[in-house]
Design goal:
mainly beta; single chain; about 400 residues; five-stranded mixed β-sheet; six-stranded mixed β-sheet
């Protein structure tokens, strides 16, 4: 069983003051954190009956679909608008794609934009959309209407190189229970061609074991190596932790382990550790786990960074430097667990107007301090699109008294 080596819960003075002091009493050295002033904080009781402070903040919907570094893509009156200078200048194209399910920027400002079943690439001139050529696992070109590019957990803007080429890899969420096939996608030519490198129920690992799950959850390249880590779900041996290895232009895979204790969702890497958000609802402790790469095969070596006192399902962890966050599954009220300035994650939970709804991912912070949040009413196609489902988290945090200037790079 997992060893629960918890971090010491040393609560900063500032955290205590947020809950029990007036504005004039609060210590705000360097304006690290300014307390929420619009209304009194709500209290969430954990499983021990202890009340923890939380903030209810208002997040506003935005027409921005995606952002990264100096790049912004938004949808206004049926037109896709792109900026490569944080909104100083804009270029416009008619949205002939329809539903937008995923966006990724490359280092040169060119962009991959995925629809429901097709993908498109556009260079930084934003002069026209070009359809990507999409290859299945067997090398055949895919040309159907299945939803191939919907994701829930993946929010990485990962600029990695393999064989000297900028490489982007991401998972497709919809799987067998939804009537579709989940895949892992890769592009090495900035979206011009997209290849399936791993396909549920077709790919076998290096020990001839079939990779078989409901769907893939997340994947992440380990920087400076040729290794790719993949999580999947949802029950028993469908929960697999997989390592991919890239050698001489091709991928091989190894199932590190499987079973319900490997029901991991989002992945983060901070050498020499890899972090997993675990969803053990119904049979174990949910929370955030970490393990040294050298010990990854033995579950006994995993340790909790955070445990949910109410054992609610969580999906993804994010690192914004000063702020760290964990998003909750859509089966609970929309909320994000917050750590700030190294404080324990349990210090603060920020709630969004009390409604239930999936927070499917948060974006990376762009060079203007903007973090986007995608939100819907559940894990279904209509809610996983970016159109009409994006919210400005940074503005909501700012209005609630958080110091968002430290989000700027």
């Amino acid at each position: 069983m997992i060893r629960k080596r918890f971090l010491k819960l040393i609560i900063p003075i500032i955290t205590i003051c947020i809950w029990g002091c007036t504005k004039d009493d609060i210590i705000t050295d360097n304006l690290d954190f300014i307390p929420f002033e619009s209304s009194s904080p709500t209290k969430n009781s954990d499983s021990t009956g202890t009340s923890t402070p939380s903030l209810a903040i208002n997040i506003l919907q935005t027409d921005i679909l995606a952002t990264s570094e100096d790049n912004i893509l938004k949808l206004v009156d049926g037109n896709l608008m792109m900026s490569n200078d944080l909104g100083t200048t804009w270029k416009s194209l008619k949205n002939t794609i329809g539903i937008i399910s995923y966006v990724h920027w490359f280092k040169d400002g060119s962009c991959l934009i995925c629809g429901r079943s097709k993908a498109y690439w556009v260079d930084k001139t934003f002069s026209r959309l070009e359809e990507s050529v999409v290859y299945d696992y067997d090398g055949r070109i895919i040309n159907d209407s299945s939803p191939h590019f919907y994701i829930t957990l993946h929010g990485h803007e990962n600029h990695f190189e393999l064989d000297g080429k900028e490489t982007h890899i991401w998972p497709d969420y919809f799987g067998e229970k939804d009537g579709f096939i989940s895949r892992i996608w890769q592009t090495t030519d900035k979206g011009k061609t997209i290849h399936c490198i791993c396909k549920n129920k077709e790919t076998k690992d290096d020990e001839n074991r079939l990779i078989s799950c409901r769907h893939f959850h997340d994947c992440l390249l380990r920087k400076g190596t040729n290794e790719l880590y993949i999580t999947s779900g949802d029950s028993n041996n469908q929960c697999q932790l997989i390592r991919g290895t890239y050698t001489e232009g091709s991928w091989s895979f190894h199932i590190i382990n499987s079973g319900k204790l490997f029901k991991f969702d989002g992945i983060n890497i901070e050498e020499p550790y890899i972090y997993f958000v675990c969803d053990y609802t119904g049979y174990g402790q949910t929370g955030l786990l970490k393990v040294d790469f050298k010990d990854i095969e033995n579950i006994d070596n995993y340790e909790y960074v955070y445990t949910s006192p109410t054992n609610e399902p969580m999906t993804k962890s994010y690192d914004y430097g000063y702020y760290k966050m964990i998003s909750y599954d859509g089966s609970v009220k929309s909320k994000i667990l917050l750590s700030y300035n190294g404080s324990p994650y349990s210090d603060k939970i920020i709630l969004f107007d009390g409604k239930e709804g999936t927070i499917s991912y948060l974006s990376n912070c762009n060079n203007d301090g903007l973090i986007l949040l995608r939100r819907g009413d559940g894990y279904n196609i209509s809610d996983l699109q970016l159109n009409n489902h994006m919210y400005n988290l940074t503005e909501g945090m700012k209005n609630a008294g958080f110091n968002t200037t430290i989000l700027k790079k």
